[in-house]
Amino acid sequence: MATGKIHQDLCNLKKKGDSAFAVLADPDKISTSDMRYLAELCNDAGVNFLFIGGSLLMAHQLDASIQSFKAESDIPVILFPGSPAQVTPYADALLYLSVVSGRNAELLIGQHVVSAPVVKASGLEVISTGYMIIDGGVQTTVSYMSNAMPIPANKPEIALCTAWAAEMQGKHVLYMDAGSGALNPVSAEMIKKVSMHTDIPLIVGGGIHTPEKVYANCQAGANIIVVGNAIERDPLLIRDLCQATRQGGQKQTA
């Protein structure tokens, strides 16, 4: 399947050795009215992408959340789905996730077969994503819901081999995630090892709370930094995290 503008933007980041910043919003945790305020903060800070989705989506307000955000912002909205049901044409693109770090066949291909007709008809830009769950020091929602054993945090060589497998299978991007609420984010060592030896864009998220960690991840080679929980606690962090991303990407390309 041909990819579109957002995927090309990600590839350009990889080609230039640059970094971008994405805010992760969970519609179960933020009201549609607050999405407008989030959009204003993202606009002011220069956020590059909004990732939206959650493991459960119990509130059934995905469409309304995206529409509220888009009413105030032109920032691209990318679905980060927890299940095949989390598809809406109101977004700009979809990370079509295969959990390549696990051995759960449903999350490698099973759920994709179920969701394929809806995704095909949605008109979304579909970005095939090799999703790698990394041990963040505590069981997270994503590790529990996926029934997948995370890659050990101190085994960057396993992460690299997993990334190579995803790349050779034709995935458009890689996503290394320690999970929402992780005690420990993905290490700079692991990010660097995967980034240096793969040719597709690398997204990194989970357990990132400070500008210093954002900067270090960019220096290590992350092309998109994703932060959710820290921003839920303090939305005003967005500006500092964005600035750290720009600085880290500039240093990376210097």
What's the short story on this structure?
This protein is α/β, with parallel strands linked by helices. The protein has helices at residues 5-16, 32-45, 62-70, 105-122, 141-146, 156-168, 188-196, 211-220, 229-233, 237-253, and strands at 20-25, 49-52, 77-79, 93-99, 125-133, 173-177, 202-205, 224-227.
Provide tags for this entry:
254 residues, 44% helix, 17% strand, 8-stranded parallel β-barrel
List strands and helices in order, with pairings.
Elements: H1 5-16, E1 20-25, H2 32-45, E2 49-52, H3 62-70, E3 77-79, E4 93-99, H4 105-122, E5 125-133, H5 141-146, H6 156-168, E6 173-177, H7 188-196, E7 202-205, H8 211-220, E8 224-227, H9 229-233, H10 237-253
Parallel strand pairs: 1-2, 1-8, 2-3, 3-4, 4-5, 5-6, 6-7, 7-8
**How many beta-strand runs?**
8
Give the domain tally. Answer: 1
* Morphology: globular
Estimate percent helicity: 40-55%
Tell me the name of the CATH homologous superfamily: FMN-linked oxidoreductases
| Named CATH architecture | Alpha-Beta Barrel
Largest sheet: 8 strands, parallel, barrel
Strand content: 15-25%
The termini sit apart by 34 Å
Order of helices and strands: HEHEHEEHEHHEHEHEHH
Uncertain regions: pLDDT < 50 for 5+ in a row?
A: none
Q: CATH class, anyone?
A: Alpha Beta
Please, how many helices? 10
What class do helices, strands and sheet pairing give?
Answer: alpha/beta
Q: Mean of residue pLDDT? A: 92
Spatial extent as radius of gyration: 16 Å
> What is CATH's topology name?
TIM Barrel
Strand order of the largest sheet: 1-2-3-4-5-6-7-8
